[in-house]
Amino acid sequence: MVTFVNRFVGLFSIDMGVDLGTANTLVCVQGEGIVLNEPSVVAVRRGTNEVLRDGQAVGLAAKEMLGKTPGTIEAVRPMKDGVIADFEITENMLRYFIRKVHNRSWGVKPRLVIAVPAGINKVETRAVTNSAERAGARKVYLIKEPLAAAIGVGLPITEPTGCMIVDIGGGTTEVAVISLAGIVNDRSVKVAGDEMDEAIIDHMKKNYNLMIGVQSAERIKIQIGSAYPLRKEMTMDVKGRDLSRGLPNRVVVTSEEIREALSEPIDEIVSAIKATLEVTPPELAADIVDMGITMAGGGALLRGLDRVIAEETGLPVRVAKDPLCAVARGTGVLLEQIEVLKDLLSTSEEL
To answer: Which residue, of 52, 92, 173, 236, has the fewest CB within 10 Å?
Structure first.
């Protein structure tokens, strides 16, 4: 009877899988795939949590305002290190994304499957659940990001075989060994894409006395950033504010120096992978020798990072197809097979 009721209710709602990331939020709808991919940024009136333009200044529109707002407006990222830093703004952001996807003024509220970092505590998981429920969710399920990423890239997580996933997001890097639909051991470090951007900002400040913004640092990382020497090194014009003169200035930077600037956060990610491997049971370690390491998340797109990890660990490393969407795809699979994979999920009643 309960199953019938759930199916009947499902006819009038659009259930969603959500990758609520520090840098980007992705939403996957059952049967449709990923329908939303926007920055986790909200524009508010400075000193308040009032979202601009009746809630329209969220996502891409708000990111375009980063570093460019007048004194009365502030573009903020309510997620930090994979968890909620500002509850009210996160709730407003989720409400906007839910309404954008579930564009009905009638019908039943949607169920949400939300991916969260493996290392967050009960207080943080409850905050995610409460924010989602207040934002308009009928029921909220939580899934650990490494599991969602592993499902999204197609790893055989339900089999008695060791799989290793490295998910490098905006705020955290999640490293996990998975077998029989459970995480055997994992490590979550607060070093990922944001720290790479900060390393580039620090480099420009120290070496060129040039102040640049987060968006400029991200463009440098994407265009010429690398973890391993390139066959053909690159250069890029970078514009910012000269700290000594206070005037706009332009300099030329090379991919070699950006690689050097990124070396510290990359070393921390490699250390987290090694630390996870060191406590992996021997039989599962033997499986990983054959299966290798799979990389997901936007950070996996950094040129040569897979090669650095392969050389440091001695294991084969592959970057998942469309790694940025791996976690969101995994939540979509969970929605489609929620009765079969429900043991992987937790709800507010279990927190």
So the answer is: 236
Q: How far is residue 139's CA from residue 109's CA, in Å, rounded to a whole number?
A: 8
Burial of residue 190, with CB atoms counted within 10 A of its CB: 0-12 exposed, 13-18 middle, 19 or more buried:
middle
Identify the architecture of domain 161-191+267-322 in CATH: 2-Layer Sandwich (3.30)
pLDDT score recorded for residue 107: 57
Homologous superfamily of 2-147+327-350: ATPase, nucleotide binding domain (3.30.420.40)
pTM here is 0.90
Of 32-46, 99-113, 139-153, 250-264, least confident by mean pLDDT is 99-113
Is residue 167 within 8 A of residue 147, CB to CB? The reply is no
CA distance 201 to 294: 29
Tokens 């990072």 belong to which residue? 305
Query: Given this chain, do its domains 2-147+327-350 and 193-263 carry the same CATH topology?
Result: no
Closest C-alpha to 171, from 91, 288, 92, 84: 84
